[in-house]
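Team,

Forwarding the record for the chain on the shared tracking sheet. I've put the sequence and predicted structure together so nobody has to dig through attachments.
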Amino acid sequence: MEPATMQKEHEWLRRMLGEWRWESEPMSETGKPPMVCAGMDRVRLLGDLWIVCEGNGGVPGDTTHTNMMSLGFDPSSGRFVGTFIASVMTHLWVYDGALDASGEALVLHTEGPSFAGDGTRARYRDTITFVAEDHRTLGSEHQTPDGAWHRFMLAHYRRTTSR
């Protein structure tokens, strides 16, 4: 096997390098105040072709969690690939995605346990969007039975160190 070479998509991922402070406001039930969560995220290289995001923070119910996301680009499929795990869940999320038409947002599709808690599976998508070089967002959505996408979380990440 020949060593892989960097593509322009790997350069896009490098935009995420550094340390970030995040704050999210999960969408709340009607009539209830939203719960604001906050934490830190450190994004580093794994070789030249992968990034690893290591995060921690507070979640609803005063529980602290840690999480890890890996992201890369597979030239053979022309797709971004990756995984996500968190200390507060047992599911390994496997990503498959692409940049949107603007080139500023990476849309990552995955599948996992349904919010219904009935043992069924559902489709999800996480979208990483660069608002500015030192400000990105992560929006999480699930697909409803009628095929519509419903956002349940939006986090703002602001870089605290240079790349």
